[in-house]
């Protein structure tokens, strides 16, 4: 007998990792042909789409700001009504904000288990990034509050899924007791180390023999976009090798910074959005090295996708993405969180036989990460939470 699963998240935006996670989960449910999935998200308009076993409910919600792709759920009455109407067997909260508090409160009334996925390490991504990592009194105070807040909201859930072991250990040290390691996955049929099917270098005017750096992600402050651009300009101006190019795929509030950079250099290409996974895989295959300037990622899905396509990744040591790097590559990563160190890491990595290494990377990633493997583990905990809830309800009924 199948179960009803309801996801609710405010992180559902085009090109984002949470949307990819939800989309892949829906594909998994379609293949299982047993369960039913309900998704509640903020949107431009209020509407619903029903394509059994998938049901999507969009609630009209404002953008966080004029540059953001994310919206904030304010119509909480509509969310409550939907939760009562759906009567899910389990609810998964995909963000730590007001909708999660509402879900926790409503689920208790409905006697439905709730799990959460720690998609965003918000104490670092938003609090410390906002204050500039200067360790000021205000930054310390807000960071302490955000740690307390994370403990309060996530300990209300039956389970909190965390994508890397290093982050799980950190959250446990904060007092979050219900954490479970559950990595994200990769579409192993699409993201493969084949030759590119499309010559995107030719289309974008990038020389065939150029050393192409690729970045895929939101153009936001917490993604360290400014440092990415500084790294590229440092390589372009001071490296003995004069063949560096940079391809950026993504959009966000810092889009004007990209436009300024393009005016300053004709070796930067920018694509705001790629909807097709097959097309995105070809971009990974077209690059020599994926560059990830972020230091606050919970997982870094693009890191796995790039390696699955045979394109190695360079980033910063001491981040949670380090858990995902195969072949011991983190020893080549930058050891200081600045653009010079990242540029030095790029220079070191390009001395390696990246193409040959990339094939081994892809093989290892395909063996360790797959959406099927991730979701099988996720369903195990779904059933455990549902079973525990049933036992509790039965005990209460017997006691009364």
From TrEMBL:
It comes from Methylacidiphilum kamchatkense Kam1. It holds the Pfam family Glycos_transf_1. SUPFAM superfamilies: UDP-Glycosyltransferase/glycogen phosphorylase (SSF53756). The keyword Transferase applies. This is Glycosyl transferase. GO terms for molecular function: transferase activity. Residues 198-349 form the Glycosyl transferase family domain. Coiled coil: none annotated. Residues 16-188 form the Glycosyltransferase subfamily 4-like N-terminal domain. Gene3D superfamilies: Glycogen Phosphorylase B. Keywords: Transferase. The keyword Transferase applies. InterPro entries: Glyco_trans_1, Glyco_trans_4-like_N, Glycosyltransferase_grp1. The lineage of its organism: Bacteria, Pseudomonadati, Verrucomicrobiota, Methylacidiphilae, Methylacidiphilales.
């Amino acid at each position: 007998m199948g179960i009803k699963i309801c996801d609710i998240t405010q992180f559902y935006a085009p090109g984002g990792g949470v949307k990819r996670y939800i989309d892949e989960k829906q594909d998994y449910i379609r293949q299982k042909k047993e369960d039913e999935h309900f998704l509640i998200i903020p949107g431009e308009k209020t509407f619903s789409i029903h394509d059994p076993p998938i049901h999507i409910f969009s609630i009209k919600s404002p953008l966080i700001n004029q540059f953001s792709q994310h919206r904030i759920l304010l119509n909480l009455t509509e969310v409550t009504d939907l939760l009562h109407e759906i009567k899910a067997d389990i609810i998964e909260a995909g963000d730590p904000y007001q909708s999660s508090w509402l879900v926790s409160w409503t689920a208790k009334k409905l006697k439905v288990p709730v799990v959460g996925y720690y998609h965003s390490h918000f104490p670092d991504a938003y609090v410390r990034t906002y204050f500039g990592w200067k360790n000021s009194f205000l930054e310390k105070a807000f960071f302490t509050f955000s740690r307390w807040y994370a403990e309060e909201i996530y300990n209300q859930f039956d389970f909190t899924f965390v994508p890397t072991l290093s982050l799980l250990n950190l959250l446990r040290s904060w007092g979050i007791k219900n954490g479970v390691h559950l990595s994200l996955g990769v579409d192993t049929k699409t993201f493969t180390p084949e030759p590119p099917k499309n010559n995107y270098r030719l289309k974008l005017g990038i020389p065939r023999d150029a050393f192409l750096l690729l970045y895929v992600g939101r153009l936001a402050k917490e993604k360290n976009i400014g440092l990415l651009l500084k790294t590229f300009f440092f390589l372009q101006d001071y490296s003995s090798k004069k063949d560096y190019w940079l391809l950026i795929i993504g959009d966000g509030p810092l889009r004007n910074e990209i436009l300024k950079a393009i005016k300053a250099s004709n070796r930067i290409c920018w694509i705001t959005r790629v909807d097709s996974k097959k097309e995105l895989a070809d971009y990974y295959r077209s690059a020599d090295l994926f560059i990830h300037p972020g230091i606050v990622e919970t997982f870094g899905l693009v890191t796995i996708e790039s390696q699955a396509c045979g394109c190695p990744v360079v980033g910063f040591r001491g981040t949670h993405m380090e858990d995902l790097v195969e072949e011991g590559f983190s020893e080549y990563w930058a050891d200081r969180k600045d653009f010079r160190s990242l540029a030095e890491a790029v220079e070191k990595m390009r001395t390696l036989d990246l193409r040959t290494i990339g094939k081994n990377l892809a093989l290892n990633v395909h063996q360790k990460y797959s959406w099927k493997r991730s979701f099988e583990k996720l369903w195990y905990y779904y059933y455990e939470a549902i079973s525990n809830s049933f036992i509790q309800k039965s005990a209460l009924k017997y006691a009364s």
